Amino acid sequence: QVHLVESGGGLVQAGGSLRLSCAASHSVYAMGWFRQAPGKEREFVVAIDYESEKIYYADSVKGRFTISRDNTNNAVHLQMNALKPEDTAVYYCTTSFQIARMVNGDIDYWGQGTQVTVSS
What we know:
Layout: E1 4-7, E2 10-13, E3 18-24, E4 30-36, E5 43-48, E6 55-57, E7 65-70, E8 75-80, E9 89-96, H1 99-103, E10 109-110, E11 114-119
Parallel strand pairs: 2-11
Antiparallel strand pairs: 1-3, 3-8, 4-5, 4-9, 5-6, 7-8, 9-10, 9-11
């Protein structure tokens, strides 16, 4: 069992920035983020492998979001810049044993989620 704890969500104006963090209870392979906006299905945001060699972003966040990994602390961070109202969602930290599975939505463990709200 892997426990994931997110932090860093909040309210920000459009164009602003937020940094999300996620700490895992154990060393895991692929880590990443999904999000779910009100009335919509959960969607993939970003995934990173253990070596930080493979990183995949959803087209909607490319160039604005940056993921990084700290394996010493079993943590991953998501720097979100140039935020838009459509980025408003609950963001979930995720992990999978294969990064390809994560990109396809096959997730082994989910965090409890953290709310990100972007006002216009």
